[in-house]
Amino acid sequence: MREALAGLILAAFAFIVSASAQERPPEPDGYRMEDYRAPVPATLAGVRVLATAEAGEIWRAKAGVFIDVMPRAPKPQNLPQGTVWRDRPRLNIPGSMWLPDTGYGKLAAATEDYLRRGLARATTGNNAALVVVYCLADCWMSWNAAKRILAYGYSNVAWYPDGTDGWERAGLALAESHPEPRPGEEISSPR
What we know:
Blueprint: H1 2-23, E1 48-49, H2 52-60, E2 65-68, E3 90-92, E4 97-98, H3 109-123, E5 131-134, H4 140-151, E6 157-160, H5 163-169, E7 175-177
Parallel strand pairs: 1-6, 2-4, 2-5, 5-6
Antiparallel strand pairs: 3-7
């Protein structure tokens, strides 16, 4: 009886693991170009995939640089004159560098340059430094950015697919952040 029950439990567990693996799409050959908020693959060739516990260990040990690629909401066009515009606050993993809009499938040359410069600053030019890339859960932006960073020649890239959603679910602290300024942008002062 116990053996039969144990067999049923193992079979159910195997089914659950198999079903959750089937929910994840396979890795595409290139970058994801649309529908960025959708289930992401479980893997990314050449990149270490981190669970929240492992990302937390790296963060506590200050063993890597964390790069947030969450897009920045654009300033609405045609605001009435005199309207004060404030960016929507972004809560991210404390100490992260926020490089918004760098996870799209195709980047403009200026955005690609922004990403490269931000990475060079974050890693102090060390292409072997551990770079942890994230966004939100089920966000292809972080998958695309991690793949792109690997293609730039960074050899120690990690992808944290649960992003700030997983971090917050684990009860870990988030901090308000501001985007890394682009060339010609003024640095916004903390509010």
